[in-house]
Request: fold
Amino acid sequence: MASRKTYLCVLSMTFVVQIAMGVGYLVGGRAGGWDINIDLSTWATSQTFVPGDRLTFKYASFHNVAEVTKADYDTCSGSNPLHTYTDGSTTIKLTKAGKRYFICTSPGHCDAGMKLEVDIASTAGTTTPTPAPVAQPPKSVAPSLAPVEGPTANDTNATDMPIVSTPAPSLVPMSRAVKSVRWAHVALGLGFGLYIVLNI
Reply:
């Protein structure tokens, strides 16, 4: 019985360590996503990166990955890169909060959109994430409209009646939802591990 409890404790701690180690992201959302015809800016802004996460660049042999300064990113200059990778499958660990900049230095590729700005948020452990509201939907920013009754069979000007549509409530921003899920997993793993340890 004790060996089973020990196994469950190790399993739960492994789960917590995996969460703490970060998430791996395939740049561009798919293999070959480090390329000219991919909207890398939209992809990057739709993700929530934190220290410990990893970026994997998959690309053809005529591309490369160069980490550059903000100034070189803005001008697409690859003359003084911080690091350059050419292996076709490059994994880069995001170690601290801040921004990092990547470009392809092949002629014309950066100017054609092959550049990536990554914004790494502060480690979520330094602040308590705000949980997403559950019971109450978020308030709509659209002005409220008075309800309008529909036309009846006796209305002669039924075609002149205005049609009023109510906008759907906005959803919780993705970055906040991702953080909540990530911390829910950590809390679940820690709680499960503590329960097992206390009951051995």
Observations:
- The chain has a mean pLDDT of 73.
